């Protein structure tokens, strides 16, 4: 069945695109949600106009995304995190952490869902993170994870000395002495 897409359907089509789809997909999903209409003569003419309008809108979004990339290229993204003895992070660096740092660098709001991070970052070092800014513009952003400086590290507290059998006997004797004072209360 040939349909004209009115709205964007991720992974399938963009507005104004004419595609052949399965009849069940069109009847049960696209038509009820208003995402597509049957490909009639009028719909095809409308689709052409929508397609041109969508191209202009997409070009404007792409230009805006390239400006954002220019801002990011001049400023490194450095995230400080608590690190254990083996160089692994105590927690992890997520897309939300990276988005907050991008917002701080650019001064613009940035949606964390635009960051393609398959697994959270759990190690110190520089990682390439993909930003999917628009349908046509993606950028590999280097994110540097550094250990957090927390001043001087505390020395570990010494372990208590082991209790020997002779010392245990003496402590039991001291416990008996405490019974004398219980009568005074």
Gyration radius from CA atoms, angstroms: 32 Å
Please report the number of helical segments.
4
Spatial order of the strands in the main sheet? 4-9-8-6
Shape descriptor reads elongated
Q: Outline the biggest β-sheet.
A: 4 strands, mixed
The name of the CATH topology of the largest domain is: Ribosomal Protein L9, domain 2
Order of helices and strands: EEHEHEEHEEEEH
> Could you name the CATH homologous superfamily of the largest domain?
Ribosomal protein L9, C-terminal domain
Low-pLDDT sequence parts? none
What's the mean pLDDT score? 82
Q: Helical residue percent? A: 40-55%
User: Structural class, from helix and strand content?
Assistant: alpha+beta
Number of strands: 9
Distance between the termini: 95 Å
Name the CATH architecture of the largest domain.
Roll
Number of domains: 2
Reading off the top of the CATH hierarchy, the class of the largest domain is best stated as Alpha Beta
The fraction of residues in strands falls at 15-25%
Description:
This protein is of the alpha+beta class. Helices cover 41% and strands 24% of the residues. It is built from 4 helices and 9 strands; from the N terminus they run E-E-H-E-H-E-E-H-E-E-E-E-H. The strands form 3 sheets. The chain has a 4-stranded mixed β-sheet. Strands 2-1-3 form a 3-stranded antiparallel β-sheet. It is elongated.
